[in-house]
Amino acid sequence: MARARRPLIAGNWKMNGLASDSLALVKELAGGLKQAGWTDRELLVCPPATLVRTVADAVKGSGLLVGGQNCHAKASGAHTGDISAEMLKDAGAACVIVGHSERRSDCGETDAVVRAKAEAAWRAGLLPIVCIGETLAEREAGKTLAVLETQLKGSVPDGATAARLVVAYEPVWAIGTGKTPTVAEVAAAHAHIRKVLGGLTAEAAGVRLLYGGSVKGSNAAELLAAGDVDGALVGGASLNAAEFLAIAKAA
Ligand code: PEP
User: Fold this and answer.
1) Per the domain annotation, does 21 fall within a domain?
2) Of 42, 86, 106, 143, which residue is the least packed, with the fewest Cβ within 10 Å?
3) Does some domain include residue 23?
4) For ligand 1, what atom is nearest to the CA of residue 212?
């Protein structure tokens, strides 16, 4: 059965944040959340792994969720420098981003790797946010929907349900560039993603689909109003409490 889709506003801090500024940021976010009293939407912050526990401890009881930015597919072992989904869970995370385009390009992560990481998230009891998105060259070649379909089919493990999966559509060319697709382009991509998901899970109608790529306070309302958009994955603007809260307000 499909569940109602509760908007999710997720902040990806990327490789930014030391303890003191991060604690100040989440204190402001938790204060904003309390003041707004939102129970109809979820706010998530994904700090660097070094700060997951610190941030999780600091926001306990505030309603703010904490997630990781990446995880290894294995639970433990000889993988120097890596962090498992179980470790993120142990540190207080509820979610983990997998397959972000920066990991796909910087670390050569394939759809199969992303799929294994999403499975690892399930194994550890984390909600995976599976990222997909086309490059500028792919868009200009008219391949956007085909690329999204391939990535989705390759990255989403069998057994997905509405409660166990979030998909983020992030056009690579829109990340950190200040450029965004039109609202119609976002809606078309999301409609296609939901259609493809229909072949992967009986609960496709309940899976939350986030848009990501240069979302900020000033453009959030129109992007979040696009058809089949159930929230946002926010990079740069998530480092500023006022901006992030403005985006959450628009949800
Ligand atoms: C991201 O990194 O997921 C992202 C969407 O970044 P930005 O909002 O800065 O474009």
Assistant:
1) no
2) 106
3) no
4) 5
